[in-house]
From TrEMBL:
It comes from Terasakiispira papahanaumokuakeensis. PROSITE patterns: PROKAR_LIPOPROTEIN (PS51257). Coiled coil: none annotated. Flavin transferase that catalyzes the transfer of the FMN moiety of FAD and its covalent binding to the hydroxyl group of a threonine residue in a target flavoprotein. Belongs to the ApbE family. One of its GO terms (cellular component) is plasma membrane. The keyword rRNA-binding does not apply. This is FAD:protein FMN transferase.
Amino acid sequence: MTKAGAYRLLRSGLVLIGLALFVAGCSAESEGPQIQRFEGQIMGTYYHVAVVGQRDEQALSELADQVHEVLADVDHKMSTWKPDSELSRFNRAPADQWFNVSQETYHVVAEAQRIADLTQGRYDVTVEPLVNLWGFGPDRHPDRVPSDTEIQQAFKKIGYTHLTLDPSGPMLRKEVSGLEVDLSSIAKGYGVDQVADWLESHGIHDYLVEVGGEIRASGERPGLSQGEGVIPWRIGIERPVSSSQSIQLVVPVSHYAVATSGDYRNYFEEDGVRYSHTIDPATGRPITHRLASVTVVTKSCMTADAWATALTVLGDQAGMALAEQENLSVYMIVKTDDGFKVEMSSAFKKQFSEALVAHQKAQP
């Protein structure tokens, strides 16, 4: 299981591969409060922050430094690249021993395990050996299809049911030797939430935060032209084609978090067969269904991040059924013989009814 390199966006430098979200209309300034922006690199990807205000250069620089510290703290706890990170030390620890972790790491792992339970293991943060085996992990090797024997050997080191949690520590424990946890399908979203919560706690309520394609927005921003006043933050959901970037649908996202997963840019081919970067923990092989892109909108970016990966693994039919069961706001783009079709959950249709009507009216 990977996510728009799901498991690889944080770790391989495949920055924004499969990205389906970008800020729509965020470049012009107007009189009065302005959109002020800063960016940086963390977790093997880029982040961008836009805040509304009139800060001088020094104040904006200090704000940028503080936001980077928030993200660096998440990275220090949950990185699998940094050998001294909390998660890396747990991954090196022997089996059948409790390992103390921070409340933050425990919180993220607990949410990952909750979604693993709901998906019956189709979302699994212990799937690293399979991701590596197919050449999409840090142990890069020439693209090739692994043997059945290699896949079965990797299965011995994975399984979310072999990872146990104890909130009293808080502590984690692995029950099989070689099991490792990789949070790159959920930690970016958690980092977005941490920045958003930090901004809120410091009196900043009009902002948009994006880390590696995962987004959370709040409040309003200045309009793009005189007389437009203030308007909600909006994002464009990208059409899933690898040759260009075009908008499929624009939706307002103030007070929400948005995450997207897709399989249309990160893959390899062998003997004319295309192998997706998204590995299904149930089979140990890349997904073969026709779901090209899935966008999830929730209050928590951490949760949206994980669900986008989970639904990508499940595919459009099983994924949409689970989205309806969990009342998730989900927008899917599915490949067909004639191009693409769109599928939306009931919650998404209700939440973005006005945007959908406007989109329909704008069609030729």
